[in-house]
Input
Amino acid sequence: DAGVIQSPRHEVTEMGQEVTLRCKPISGHDYLFWYRQTMMRGLELLIYFNNNVPIDDSGMPEDRFSAKMPNASFSTLKIQPSEPRDSAVYFCASSGTGRPETQYFGPGTRLLVL
Amino acid sequence: QKEVEQDPGPLSVPEGAIVSLNCTYSNSAFQYFMWYRQYSRKGPELLMYTYSSGNKEDGRFTAQVDKSSKYISLFIRDSQPSDSATYLCAMSEGNTPLVFGKGTRLSVIA
Output
């Protein structure tokens, strides 16, 4: 299995631009998680899906952030408009049925907003 | 008080040393306890998984959970330079999202 796939791996953009991060979970996994990691705050859960349905988005920092999962093999995290404080590493993770605690992480997208 | 507390380090040890990494937590409902290892510029990878209290051993790694003290530990025996990474503890009540510690950065010096 290829594992969790994220794209792009690096993104540099200017403040105010729209940023779209993409994730392909491990085939057969029905949980998908989006995290943000910074030195100051560590790894923070933004939102998670179960069977393509958003379950908890309380970690999404504000309305500028949105996430979708149109099917079992694809999810996006969008930031519009982006701000410098959004600079972080964004991880996607997936886990299997009944095992949301055993998560497999992707390589992350390193985002820099200038 | 944060739900999960973890000393960020950095922790530097000589090769071959026994390493002890720890986390404390406040939520007594946590039942699942994990340790993730994260190499620089990589995603976290699941290293150890423990349900409820007790010990679990896997090669050079031992995970301990003391629910009465709300304290978990990861021991690394015969540490190697390849063990240099950030170690994150994570916990869950079960069928709920993981709550992560901030991670302890470990360097094993050859």
